[in-house]
Amino acid sequence: MLHFLTSFLVYGIFQAAVSALQHQPVVNAVIDGDDIIYRDYIDISIAVGTPKGLVVPVIRNADNMNFADIEKVLPRPMMYVALTYDHRLIDGREAVFFLRRIKDVVEDPRRLLLDV
Question: Percentages helix, strand, coil for the chain, rounded to the nearest 5?
Fold first, then answer.
């Protein structure tokens, strides 16, 4: 039962990150020369500590994944959320809104279900 609850929490945080990226698409954009490329897909990397060191698998097309798909990423009892970004593309305002969206959805998952 604890494994299920931990997995469900990880899924909630994962979906919160997807929601935040959908609400702040500039965080998912990249600079290519003089162009800003807004990606039409969401890939998320989750750092996982293992006995052999840190592993950071990339979850491709995260916005199309369900609970069963995420359950295949080994859950951990605690998770830190950090954001790195290119200041040429994103200023602190968008970064704060992105992280705040994750926090809000994790604290109140109804926001994700109701898309508010």
Answer: 45, 15, 40
Q: Which of 80, 16, 73 lies closest to 50 in space, CA to CA?
A: 73
Q: What single-letter DSSP state applies at residue 73? A: S
Taking a C-beta distance cutoff of 8 angstroms, is the pair 20, 27 a contact? yes
**Would you state the structure tokens that stand for residue 12, as one six-digit string?**
């909630």
pLDDT tens, position by position, 58-112: 888 989 988 777 766 654 455 567 788 888 888 888 988 988 888 888 778 887 7
Q: What residues act catalytically?
A: 87, 91
CB-based contact 20:99 (threshold 8 Å): yes
